[in-house]
Fold:
Amino acid sequence: MGIKRYKPTSPGRRISTVQSFKDVTKTKPERSLRLIKKQKAGRTKGTISVRHKGGGTKRYIRQIDWKMMKFDVPAQVKSIEYDPNRGARIAMIAYRDGVKSYILAPIDMKVGDQIVCSKVLGEIKSGNRYPLKHIPLGMPVYNIELIPSGGGKLVRGAGDSAVVQSLEGGYVQIKMPSGEVRLISEDCMATIGQVSNPDWKLIRWGKAGRMRKRGIRPTVRGKAMNPVDHPHGGGEGGSPIGMKHPKTPWGKTALGVKTRRRKSSDRLIIKKRVSKKRRTRQ
Structure:
């Protein structure tokens, strides 16, 4: 993708960066594969259920084919497009029978490439989709299913990829981008390669106005509020929170508290993910 800078004509423009869009080959989405995204602004029946959401520019939802169930039918890449609902690029493909669909594009996909989804191992090529049991060890993969034929659920963020480590007892050991190592059924499908647009994480948004266009409202620190509004509020000047652990606006313990409930899939997690604090120290 690449990162682009403008001349510093204002304080916000000085520190902000934008995408270059050099890899995008088509500007308008396919009409048959788009839907208007309804703006709910984090509200349920008019009541705020998710804070810091609101506004945002009008968007169209691209209907992405996460399953790719047309097996052994070659498809040609027609265009690489921008999707406002995600950081990665998407690719419009056309099968030999004329059916068109959107898929999550890998980092090195180009217009004119041929890809295939099959349950039998074929060419080891970025963009091809196979069951995990057929993918060679050490190969980067993305858009991984959690249950067979359930559609890709894991590793879909811009620039992400997981690594196939081992195969044993009907399960494949996968190392996730977060550092978590878990077992996934060998019959689950995955796409070979790395998700496109890795430079997405390097963008500096620069000013609040760009965040509002993304649908993100301002977030106010609790210690900057009054005691009636937040447990951290009150005090003179830059005062501490005044308690042993940080709290949410409703008095529940926050920051570092485990929120994952016990699930049946916990037995498939071999190594838990590395926390952000530990990752920065290493």
Summary: The chain has three helices and 19 strands. The radius of gyration is 22 Å.
